[in-house]
């Protein structure tokens, strides 16, 4: 592996969840394997002047601008960067890995298929037509998958690979599966003192069943289902981690109608979800669509079982009834999952926590990075 260099392309590469977090964890794992890694981000695409997206119409316009800029200007500049970097003087072969937007790179990591996500949520034509970003992304990706810009597409699950081939039957390059990983040192089960402190900070009573929802797309990830299901389970408290002020205002109105405001805790956007996972009895994620939700593995690594719909990574890593519950995407389905969590006695909770942690340990980032490096070595041997 020491004859390789990796160039990762992503709008940002930083700790946290999402695409930027994946690239960050891979970068660290590549370094531990002795493989130098370079970056190409939105700043390298001369897009540092673009502000961070915020709430409302202005926020959506800013997001559109960032995606369009990185997809167009970023593509041109990334291709130049790759061409220059291929002629390095250290004797190492460069393999480029693109995570989002830019149409360049030997490897493209499919972090989600927009068209599949919109169909899963219903009202496909309306959702696409009303959002210029969706129309742009769909057109860009149709061009991406019809061409030979990339030499291989990495999918995060086998289901996502199948969905990619079904959505883009003219895909012209190989599609492989490499799942995401989890930092099992950073995400670990809390001590008794840490758990007690986390629950107190979250405002959750000692005897309550505490369910945590983590995500910024409340509709797609099924927050309303969780809130409606919990309304019928008086011992269940829900903490909502993520969302903009406007989104949280809508949640407050909903829980007021449900008369559960005393059992719903709104954390908003946080830099680190661990305190909430340390306080949790379960993670709830009844998504309509997921490519590979990192928070599922993060919860398991913290010893927290997961109530989820069978999408994305969930059916690959959850053992139904042992490390979590795979449920229908309905209020009744989610209610049954939350009720199963509430029904666990202390011994069953400890066993679920041990099993969840053991599952996560099989998916650490070093193991994932080794698979990427093996793929990169194959590509380096056969230059186009």
TrEMBL record:
Glycosyl transferase family domain boundaries: 197-357
Signal peptide: none
Keywords for the protein's UniProt record, in alphabetical order: Transferase
InterPro entries tied to this protein: Glyco_trans_1
Pfam families (UniProt xref): Glycos_transf_1
SUPFAM superfamilies xref list: UDP-Glycosyltransferase/glycogen phosphorylase
CDD domains: GT4_PimA-like
UniProt keyword Transferase, yes or no: yes
Keyword Transferase: yes
PANTHER family: BLL3647 PROTEIN, GLYCOSYLTRANSFERASE
Protein name as catalogued: Glycosyltransferase family 4 protein
Organism whose genome encodes this protein: Cellulosimicrobium composti
């Amino acid at each position: 592996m020491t004859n390789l260099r990796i160039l990762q392309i992503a709008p940002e590469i930083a700790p946290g969840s999402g695409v930027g977090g994946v690239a960050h964890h891979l970068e660290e794992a590549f370094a531990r394997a002795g493989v130098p890694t370079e970056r190409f981000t939105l700043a390298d695409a001369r897009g540092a002047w673009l502000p961070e997206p915020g709430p409302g119409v202005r926020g959506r316009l800013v997001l559109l601008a960032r995606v369009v800029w990185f997809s167009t200007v970023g593509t041109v500049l990334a291709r130049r960067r790759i061409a220059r970097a291929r002629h390095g003087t250290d004797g190492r072969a460069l393999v480029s890995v693109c995570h989002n937007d830019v149409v360049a790179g030997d490897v493209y990591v499919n972090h989600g298929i927009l068209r599949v996500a919109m169909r899963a949520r219903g009202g496909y034509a309306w959702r696409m037509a009303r959002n210029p970003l969706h129309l742009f992304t769909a057109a860009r990706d149709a061009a991406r998958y019809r061409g030979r810009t990339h030499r291989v597409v990495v999918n995060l699950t086998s289901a996502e690979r199948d969905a990619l081939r079904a959505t883009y039957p003219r895909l012209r390059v190989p599609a492989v599966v490499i799942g995401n990983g989890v930092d099992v040192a950073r995400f670990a089960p809390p001590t008794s003192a840490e758990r007690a402190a986390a629950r107190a900070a979250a405002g959750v009573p000692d005897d309550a069943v505490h369910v945590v929802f983590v995500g910024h797309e409340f509709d797609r990830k099924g927050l309303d289902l969780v809130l409606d299901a919990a309304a019928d389970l008086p011992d269940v408290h829900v903490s909502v981690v993520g969302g903009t002020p406007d989104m949280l205002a809508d949640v407050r109105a909903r829980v007021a109608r449900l008369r559960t405001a005393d059992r719903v805790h709104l954390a908003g956007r946080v830099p680190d979800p661990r305190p909430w996972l340390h306080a949790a009895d379960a993670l709830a994620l009844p998504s309509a669509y997921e490519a590979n939700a990192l928070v599922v593995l993060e919860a398991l690594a913290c010893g927290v079982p997961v109530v989820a719909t069978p999408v994305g990574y969930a059916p690959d890593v959850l053992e139904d009834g042992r490390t979590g519950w795979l449920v229908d995407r309905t209020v009744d389905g989610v209610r049954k999952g939350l009720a199963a969590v509430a029904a666990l006695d202390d011994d069953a909770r400890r066993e679920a926590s041990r099993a969840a942690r053991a599952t996560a340990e099989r998916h650490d980032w070093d193991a994932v990075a080794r698979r990427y490096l093996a793929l990169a070595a194959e590509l380096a041997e056969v230059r186009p």
